[in-house]
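User: Just a sanity check before I run the rest of the batch. Below are the structure tokens for the first item. I only need the designed sequence back.
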């Protein structure tokens, strides 16, 4: 089967006064028609920059260096001009931005913002476009849609604004939806509603979705595959069920362990990942997670592991000492004995402190 979206060795570097920021460094992914692929990682891992490069919103020039290719249904998007890309935006590929508070135009009514893409791509009269806008607002769960189209963004709550941005993204029935942290700045109950809405719409419309988040809980029941990013690179990718059953990259396992448990003793101290995400002006040599990895050995500090198969081509990881392997057990035993990793990261035998 031919992939709907293919990213091959995508690179994005920003040239600044302090040096070169290696924001995205050789990312390759594929997304099938109707599939949900989640891209997960901490802030600063390169998720948003990669998403914007896929959309064509990050291009070379003016201190930005790009390489690699992005292909959508046979068309190489990275070879198109801005004008040529605009034919795809909204009609074929749509983007939901992180912050609903700033992603809408504050001086335009909701109806005007909703109908803009419909009129542009489908050449329908404004009256018909407005009627469709009302139905779109109804489909995303907004009450009184006839009233909402006459309102301005400041008259709506954060959750309502995000529903509007989703309606705008879906206004021309795109085949691919890029959802970049779609629940940022929303309270927990509204986050769940928005995520459930996206999952329902994706299933009903049959579109593919690239869901970007830092929270593994969000994607466990809402994705088909997961790609874990760290310091501009993909460090593990697998079908969702496989990744949760048997993570091989220590960073993936650390992300899972940092999620608060739904059951267990009260007042449990949350497990944290030691240190901070690396400075992408000066990425670490060797494995990029090695300065924070409690299992790091000398080899990890000097040699970067390639992406390799974990028994099948569907599950790939980037680690010399994969979780659960005999090598992992030996590395853990060595570091437990000396109390620190090869990079000096403390290691204890405790998994959860209560």
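Assistant: Here's the designed sequence for the first item:
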């Amino acid at each position: 089967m031919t992939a709907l979206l293919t990213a091959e060795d995508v690179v994005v570097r920003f040239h600044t006064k302090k040096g070169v920021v290696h924001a995205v460094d050789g990312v390759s992914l594929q997304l099938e028609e109707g599939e949900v692929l989640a891209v997960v990682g901490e802030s600063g891992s390169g998720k948003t920059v990669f998403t914007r490069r896929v959309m064509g919103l990050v291009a070379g020039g003016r201190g930005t260096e790009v390489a690699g290719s992005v292909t959508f249904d046979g068309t190489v998007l990275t070879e198109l001009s801005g004008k040529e890309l605009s034919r795809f935006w909204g009609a074929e590929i749509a983007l939901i931005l992180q912050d609903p508070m700033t992603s809408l135009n504050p001086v335009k009514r909701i109806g005007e913002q909703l109908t803009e893409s419909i009129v542009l791509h489908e050449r329908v009269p404004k009256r018909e476009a407005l009627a469709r806008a009302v139905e779109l607002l109804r489909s995303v769960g907004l009450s009184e849609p006839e009233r909402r189209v006459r309102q301005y963004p400041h008259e709506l709550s954060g959750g309502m604004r995000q529903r509007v941005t989703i309606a705008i993204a879906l206004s021309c029935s795109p085949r691919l939806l890029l959802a970049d942290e779609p629940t940022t700045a929303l309270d927990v109950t509204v986050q769940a509603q928005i995520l459930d809405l996206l999952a329902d719409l994706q299933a009903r419309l049959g579109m593919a979705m690239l869901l970007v988040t830092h929270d593994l809980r969000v994607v466990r029941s809402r994705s088909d595959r997961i790609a874990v990013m760290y310091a501009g690179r993909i460090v593990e990718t697998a079908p969702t069920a496989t990744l949760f059953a048997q993570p091989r990259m220590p960073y993936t396992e650390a992300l899972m362990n940092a999620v608060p448990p739904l059951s267990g003793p009260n007042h449990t101290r949350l497990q944290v990942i030691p240190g901070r995400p690396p400075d992408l002006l000066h990425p670490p040599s060797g494995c990029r997670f090695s300065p924070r990895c409690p299992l790091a050995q000398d080899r990890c500090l000097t040699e970067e592991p390639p992406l390799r198969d974990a028994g099948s081509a569907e599950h790939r990881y980037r680690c010399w000492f994969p979780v659960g392997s005999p090598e992992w057990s030996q590395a853990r035993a060595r570091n437990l004995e000396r109390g620190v990793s090869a990079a000096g990261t403390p290691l204890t035998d405790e998994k959860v402190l209560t």
